[in-house]
Amino acid sequence: MEVIGSDGCHGVPMEWDTIEIAGVENPALAPYVGRRLDSWATARHLLLADRLAPSILQHVGHEENVRQIMRHRVHTGGSDGILQGAKPHPGPTARSPSISADTAGSWASSPLEECVSHLTSRPAARLRLRDRGLIKEGYKADVVLFNPHTVAAGSTFENPRTLPRGIPTY
């Protein structure tokens, strides 16, 4: 870590300046939120001063790889985001440029049912949640009503807590 920074997940090395502080518990450390790390010394200071509580955003990876993965027919949607701290990860949506590219086979350009399945029944099946992911007798009713013509993410990295558009009731 002192030489090349942290492992940016699955062996993708990342530099310190790709790690952004998303949240801290100690109010005295609040000025660090939104800033990028500059060294192992800064990371160590924050971890110790905040008793291992800081949350981060990792700005790593290759955009085209993300697009290909998100468009794969068996990919399931989900989130590794934690709504903790002042700047949680906003997350992409089917209308995001990173996902809805003009490539044939994109799930974002698929019928609405495919997009919904990508985010509901596939993850539920993958996680073996036997009573979730479908609207079916005996299943838990996790339902979101939305306008398919106007639904869009409202959040960005700059404003990660902005509510989505096209969902009339929260």
Commentary on this structure:
The protein is mainly α and 170 residues long. Helices cover 19% and strands 5% of the residues. It has a two-stranded antiparallel ribbon. The radius of gyration is 19 Å and the shape is elongated.
Describe the secondary structure blueprint for this structure.
Layout: E1 19-23, H1 40-49, E2 55-58, H2 63-71, H3 112-119, H4 121-126
Antiparallel strand pairs: 1-2
Give a short summary of the structure.
The chain is mostly helical and 170 residues long.
Structural class: mainly alpha
Give the DSSP E fraction (strand runs of 2 or more residues). 5-15%
Note the main sheet. Answer: 2 strands, antiparallel
Low-confidence stretches: 100-109
What Rg, in angstroms, do the CA atoms define?
19 Å
Features:
single chain; 170 residues; mainly alpha; two-stranded antiparallel ribbon; 4 helices; 2 strands; elongated
